[in-house]
Task: inverse folding
């Protein structure tokens, strides 16, 4: 697929705000025909630019009560094995590579502090993790 043009980017921005917006609503906001919006959406999906549509929930609905980010420093070239072991920790919601001091960033979500703490213990017990730092998510600033 060719580079995304201005209309593609505007369409994606609208869908990020409301993935359930009707084609008619999107067309009106973009000042194009419904056929244009439908064709653009199909092209973006077929090309893999749009993978799926999702529901945005109230920040507390369906989310674990305790969430946080743990940054990990890895010894040597053990990242692949460590990522596999991190995936076995049920509270791990996401694992990302990063740059700078930390090698991995891990999102954690748990129903309570006790389970969150057990998840941290399980992660820190993985051989090859040299250092970690965890920050709890508090309130959203909007």
Result:
């Amino acid at each position: 697929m060719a580079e995304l043009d201005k209309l593609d980017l505007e369409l994606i921005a609208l869908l990020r705000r409301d993935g359930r917006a009707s084609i008619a609503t999107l067309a009106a906001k973009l000042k194009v025909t419904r056929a244009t919006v439908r064709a653009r959406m199909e092209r973006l999906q077929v090309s893999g630019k749009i993978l799926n549509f999702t529901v945005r929930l109230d920040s507390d609905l369906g989310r674990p009560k305790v969430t946080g980010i743990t940054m990990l420093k890895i010894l040597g070239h053990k990242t692949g094995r460590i990522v596999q072991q991190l995936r076995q920790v049920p509270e791990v919601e996401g694992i990302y590579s990063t740059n700078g001091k930390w090698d991995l960033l891990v999102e954690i979500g748990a129903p309570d502090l006790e389970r969150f703490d057990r998840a941290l213990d399980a992660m820190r017990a993985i051989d090859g993790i040299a250092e970690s730092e965890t920050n709890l998510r508090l309130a959203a600033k909007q």
Observations:
- The two ends are 35 Å apart (CA to CA).
